Amino acid sequence: MKSTLLIIITFLFGTSTFAQTNTNSLNITKLTSNCYIYTTYHAYKGDIASANGLYVVTNNGVVMIDTPWDTTQFQPLLDSIEARHHQKVVLCIATHSHADRTAGLEFYRQKNIKTFTSTQTDSLSKINNYQRAEFHFTKDTTFTIGQLTFQTFYPGPGHTADNIVVWFPQQKILYGGCFIKSTEATDLGYIKEANLQAWPTSLKKVQQKFPQPKFIIPGHDSYASLNSINHTLKLLQQHKK
């Protein structure tokens, strides 16, 4: 009943681009004609926190950015993608070493999905005994899968020393991961590995390099606003005070 009501509301308000499929643990939302946001959930500090990932459907398979945080959703996500699009995931890139980005890397490698992180992320993953990707890139890299071209960009330290963003030029989607905070965020979240001094400069580099995105996807919470980078800068300033 809730899913039906959501579809009706979405239609009435003219936001059919964001039509959703929901389960208790996995939420898939259509962002553009071939790009989808998937959200999973995990217990964090006594509450249930959401984590956003992204996938894009190409004519040569599906590209996934980050893995589910909820380990029970590794296979259901693949099943949902194949049922909806009749395509398999062929590539997965994680945007930094924490489990909300990398937890499924080994699982997907065993499914013959090519998994990638930066060499910096791999070094941290090895040190901290986190999940590691099979392949690595040493610098900003452009990937082409089918008709899709996208690029990774390392802006400098911020949420972590290794955080990267991913830019989809055709769709003008900036995927920020945990480097960018949602406008719903009231604080910076986990900052034990953050570089609070460098983070503002790194954010401004992203703004300069990708000045007019149509969508900005933070690692957690809502992605409805284009003001999330400025909001992150504001949170950093507030924390400094």
How would you describe this structure to a colleague?
By secondary structure, the protein is α/β, with parallel strands linked by helices. The protein has one domain (2-240): Metallo-beta-lactamase, Chain A. The protein contains seven helices and 13 strands. The strands form two sheets. Strands 1-2-3-4-5-6-7-8 form an eight-stranded mixed beta sheet. It has a five-stranded mixed beta sheet with strand order 9-10-11-12-13, with no helix packed on it. Strand 11 (165-168) and strand 12 (173-177) form a beta hairpin. Helix 6 runs antiparallel to helix 7. Residues 1-19 have low confidence and may be disordered.
General shape: globular
Alpha plus pi helix count? 7
Tell me the β content.
25-35%
> What CATH architecture would you give?
4-Layer Sandwich
**In total, how many domains does the architecture comprise?**
1
Report the uncertain regions.
Answer: 1-19
